[in-house]
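Study both lines:
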Amino acid sequence: MKIKWLKDVTITCVESYDEKNGMVDETDESFVKDEVTEFDIFDDRGITVNIQFGDGSVAYGVPKSIYEVIEKD
């Protein structure tokens, strides 16, 4: 789906997870107000969602109040 950010945000994204060692590779991704981004929601938790970007990275607990859906798949 395509969304538009309603304000400037920085989201922590999990790039990879090594189950054997319990190591998580995280990066911060920043988006500016009115920027259009695509992601898929894989878990809707009410006021927050867990999302996955096209590169496979995921972000947890993203508030629905910080983006607006402009096109659903």
The chain has a mean pLDDT of 93. The longest strand covers residues 9-18. The chain has no helices and eight strands. The radius of gyration is 13 Å.
